[in-house]
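pasting for the record
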Amino acid sequence: MKMIKRGFTLVELLVVISIIAILIGLLMPAVQRVRESASRIKCANNLRQIGLALHMYNDTEKRLPPTRLSDLHATWAVLILQYLEQGNLYRQWNLPMTYYDQTAIARLTPVPTYYCPSRRTPQTPPMASIAGDQNDDFFPIGPHVPGALGDYGGNTGTDNCDGADCGGAVNGAFRVGFNQFGQFVGAVSFSEITDGLSNTIFVGEKHVQLNNFGKGVLDCSLYNGDYWTCSTRSAGPNYPLARLPTDATISFGSYHPGLCQFVMGDCSVRPISVSTDARILALLTNISDGQPIPDF
């Protein structure tokens, strides 16, 4: 008796393909959640390393680094490089010289610790300024010279500036070293943080609008002290956390769904919901308001 070999019918094949597609559809969200969880942990570790580097800088200098040495000069992100195991890069910088006069190696070398993997990688290229870019219109001063980017900003308090070029009263953990008139403004010492290190934000994820990476002064080089927006952010009633990557705002914000991460003065990393009351954010950014912080 002759055996007849029977294969899959077209209908059976389509059913199998449909089942596989459904299984993949069910699996992908889980894979994405695992990937985001890993990225969030890596981001938190970056912030913790930055917090430890700030403490080591304070141990040496008896104060926190300034937001920037002065107009045009290096930012806090340059000053703590040697405490992030980036001594070779730190030695490339000639601190008395402006950002624009540094070598290309100094300006363009990225530091992986300064990048949140949920947003981008150290290989994200800095872009030249685009003619007519709204960022340039907002701050039409100085040239735009590309440099390494970064995803973290120092806390200048409840005013969205560092007090050097907008006259604001700086009440955050970072202030400019010298203003544009060459007058010494100083830097914050731990003794000035009377609200307590655990209640004070040091550094957080700075909001960078989606599709605007490396464009203009809202995402200029983290090393560039010409613009306070390059390396600092503020928070309070006028500057709530960015809720979405597409938000057009100068504030803290992240690409982690629903939250933004911060390193506090005691080096603990706290995820804060993007819906947190902006008045609570103001208490966390002000180093000496003397007010209790409600649960959040």
